[in-house]
Amino acid sequence: MDATQLLKGVLDLAVLAVLREEDGYGYDIMRRLREAGLDEVGDASVYGTLRRLFAAGLLTTYVVPSESGPHRKYYSLNAAGRDQLTRSGKLWRSFATTMDTLLDDRGVTA
Known about the structure:
With about 110 residues, the protein is α+β, with helices and mostly antiparallel strands. About 65% of the residues lie in helices and about 15% in strands. The chain is built from four helices and three strands. A three-stranded antiparallel beta sheet has the order 1-3-2. α1 (about 5-20) packs across α3. InterPro entries: Metal_resp_DNA-bind_regulator, Tscrpt_reg_PadR_N, WH-like_DNA-bd_sf, WH_DNA-bd_sf. It comes from Micromonospora rubida. This is PadR family transcriptional regulator.
């Protein structure tokens, strides 16, 4: 199974989860995703996801000046984004539990 295909299906949820605790700018969010173990995540995928989530009304943005380079656009969860994170998180946990059960019932080991 290709990990990049699985990642495409859960990248929105992963980005929302990363932003739950702390706002971030594109590269910072990508770094945090990779540190969490999503090594396959690509730059373009993260930036595209941020644009899509913002356009869907799930994120807000603000700009922070930087003394060492260009200004950084920070993303933060708004109320709609938190609601989506809760709904998607429940769906993911249900799906993961079902898959764990299917794999365990068939003797597949991790």
